[in-house]
UniProtKB/TrEMBL annotation:
<dbReference type="InterPro" id="IPR050266">
    <property type="entry name" value="AB_hydrolase_sf"/>
</dbReference>
<dbReference type="InterPro" id="IPR000073">
    <property type="entry name" value="AB_hydrolase_1"/>
</dbReference>
<protein>
    <submittedName>
        <fullName>Alpha/beta fold hydrolase</fullName>
    </submittedName>
</protein>
<dbReference type="Pfam" id="PF00561">
    <property type="entry name" value="Abhydrolase_1"/>
</dbReference>
<dbReference type="InterPro" id="IPR029058">
    <property type="entry name" value="AB_hydrolase_fold"/>
</dbReference>
<dbReference type="GO" id="GO:0016787">
    <property type="term" value="F:hydrolase activity"/>
</dbReference>
<feature type="domain" description="AB hydrolase-1">
    <location>
        <begin position="24"/>
        <end position="180"/>
    </location>
</feature>
<keyword id="KW-0378">Hydrolase</keyword>
Amino acid sequence: MKRYTITCQQQSVHITEWGTEQLPTIVCFHGLGSTSLSFIEIAEALADKFRLIAIDLPGHGKTPAFLDPLHYRMKPFTDWIDEVLHILDVKRFYALSHSWGSVLSLYYLIEHADRVLGTILIDGGYHSKRLYGLSVEEEVVFYEQDFEDSVSTWDEFLDVAVYAPDARRSHSLDLAGADLLRMEEGRFHWHARGETAAAIVRALHHEDVLDFLPDVPPADIQLYVATLPTDQASIRQQATNRLHEMTQATVHFVPETGHLLHWDRPDVIIEAIRHYWTSGKRLSPI
């Protein structure tokens, strides 16, 4: 694993990379509040077969936030992503994404589908704000408060902020958890700020995923869906049905997994990548 910084639009951008340049490239887009190390276990397992590039998206990890909150809207954001990839000399790639990153990944296909060899969405891209009935102001208040909260110890940070109750843990995921930490006056804070989360939430409400999914061109899209909590099964089914109808994405429900599906069951995503993206293989859904 190597970590380095490039400059895009006069802004530093932090990158985490595994593998070597001669291998096929996977570009990873993390979810809201996460960092590039979100994909660490998947990357460690596949670094001998792929070059994996994960970007700390603006306002996350070691990449500063956009100065203009309107830049978090879909087109300016995905144009920024495309510029980053040009700087990195990434011409064609596979796209792996989680949660909010999956919304960006789908929108990227609208203008740059010719650059994407395949798309895997990890429990994201289907959470329509309109379909889920979420109020923008209520959601903004929640995220502003949640992201500005803090705890007093590292163990408490792991228990409260990083891991879900009873979730599997590993040394690599502890490293990913440390990447989420910001220390301030002896307190353990979430690294991303409330104003960043608020800007992203407003952008997601402004351009609901259902509004642009019909514009996503035909593509090889695989969606892996969490099944916990079970009380969301009905709305989850309805939302994923909509995504399938609009994009023809293949939908895979993964039993006993929460929203951090790639942490709960990294083996499922690792096997999916090997199955769909190994050179020369075009197989039926697993």
